[in-house]
Amino acid sequence: MHNKHSWAEPYKIKMIEPIVMTTKEFRQKALKEAGYNTFLLRSKDVYIDLLTDSGTSAMSDRQWAGIMMGDEAYAGSRNFYHLEKTIQDYYSYKYIVPTHQGRAAEHMLSQILIKKGDYVPGNMYFTTTKLHQEMAGGTFVDIIVDEAHDPDSLYKFKGDVDLNKLQKLIDKVGAEKIPYVSIASTVNMAGGQPMSMANLKALRQLTNKYGIKIMHDMTRIAENAFMIQLNEEGYADKTVSEIVYEFNLLTDGATMSAKKDALVNIGGFLAVNDYDTFDKARNMVVVYEGLHTYGGMAGRDMEALAIGIKESVQDDHIRARVGQVFYLGQKLLDMGVPIVKPVGTHGVFLDAKAFLPHVSQDKFPAQSLAAELYLDSGVRAMERGVVSAGRNKKTGEHNYPKLELVRLTIPRRVYTQAHMDVIAESVQRVFEKRDSINGMKMIYEPEYLRFFQARFEKL
Question: Over the stretch 129-154, which tens digit does the pLDDT of each residue have?
């Protein structure tokens, strides 16, 4: 699978968007103005944009045709009913509440199910998910397998839950204090690492014993299903679509940022199987997002999403999508660049601790590395380390995660293999002069999700 030659993409290009290579002097100035935070750079000043795979994918001709079929009625848009049926048919969930994107679904779910003093165990935190859980009065507890925190471990399913960690939490706080287990299919913060079907089945057995729900962040479910097809016994002959459906059946509900796997630029939903939670969410969505048949999305966006869901679970599509990530990952491994292994599904994660061992974590090595990469070539990546991890609520000190990463996130159907080569060569150049890179200090820190807006100075 990790061969050096990518197969051809299962599509041809019909429309292009020009990108411009800037000079080093220009990038130096732009970076300084952005406070050395790649989130604060302007898109027009970026050559190859690997900041995120969220909302950055290219839509198909079918999706663009769907955009013209938007029924913009305020209530009861036909696009909502098409979306609802598509989610039921492809993802298995019964009740659907549309939202403008994933974090709105996380907000509703947290407010409905979490009480003050509750604990929410999960397979590694995600930034917005954890914040919503905390704002609802809960405490997030990491129950992912230990291998997930080790960038060099070759364990194939680093997204798996450690059932002993969950059992210990249940014994300590009691099942009534655990409203649900929060699982993500492919764990972003661990490097885009998948969860196995066997592990989810075992988790389902354990949670059933205590009457605890499993809520699923299904943002990259098709990618996770592909890794199950590739690496888990008994799944090689099943389609990605069949695996997606089976995986979802083992959970009680899901939040979805459709801006990733489902190939749209905006949109999401909360999907649940129990009517009571649905009824509360349907009530809440009207206050925060919009009527329960659009939830912050235009009719045309719901139509593009319904079509995108069907495209996202096609085997040819997902094989090429993840194949492009594997291609870049293998190239960097061949160059001796330290990355999270095995290569994940939505991006290649540089191991900033190993890349810059002379920069201590309180000097933000991943932030420094992301800035250096932009300076070298105009490639924009993002930090996934101490800045993203935020501060300890009680002590006010930085949280120091074991993983200090820079994410090279690949948008779907956007870049070619030649772009991957340019990225790899830039990373190699930065790696060769790594000794000259010093850390940074933070000079501005917002209250929430600081990685989006914090500003830095070079040391």
Answer: 999 999 999 999 999 999 999 999 99
Distances (CA, A) of 37 to 6, 69, 156, 165, 325: 32, 39, 32, 36, 24
Token representation of residue 303: 């139509």
- Please give the C-alpha separations between residue 204 and each of 88, 93, 236, in angstroms, as whole numbers: 21, 16, 23
Q: Which amino acid is at 30?
A: A
3-state secondary structure of 316: helix
Nearest to 217 by CA among 91, 322, 338: 91
Q: Is 217 a catalytic residue?
A: yes
Does residue 364 have an active-site annotation? no
At residue 60 the predicted structure's pLDDT band, cuts being 50, 70 and 90, is very high
Domain 61-312, second-level architecture: 3-Layer(aba) Sandwich (3.40)
Helix axis angle, 365-377 to 417-432, nearest 10°: 120
DSSP 144-178: B-GGGG-TT---S-TT-B-HHHHHHHHHHH-GGG-
In the set 384, 407, 412, 413, the catalytic residue is: 384
Closest to 457 measured CA to CA, from 371, 380, 382, 335: 371
Closest CA to 58 of 376, 388, 412: 412
Domain 24-53+315-458 has CATH 3.40.525.10: no
Q: Which one of 26, 29, 74, 416 is the catalytic residue?
A: 74
Residue 347: phi, psi to the nearest 5?
180, 170
Q: Are 251 and 212 in contact (CB under 8 A)?
A: no
Residue 74 is a catalytic residue: yes
Annotated catalytic residue 165? no
pLDDT of residue 6: 52
Pairing of strands 139-142, 119-122: parallel
Among this protein's residues, is 395 annotated catalytic? no
pTM comes to 0.95
Is residue 355 part of the annotated active site? The answer reads no
Kindly report, residue by residue over 105-132, the tens digit of the pLDDT: 999 999 999 999 999 999 998 889 999 9
Q: How far is CA 361 from CA 299, 400, 427, in A?
A: 46, 7, 20
| Sign of the Cα pseudo-torsion (434, 37, 187, 62, in order) | negative
Q: Percent of the chain at pLDDT above 70?
A: 98
What's the rounded Cα separation, in Å, for the pair 315 and 320? 9
Domain boundaries of the chain, sorted by first residue:
24-53+315-458, 61-312
Interatomic CA distance for residues 174 and 17, integer angstroms: 55
Do 312 and 261 meet the contact criterion of CB atoms below 8 Å apart?
yes
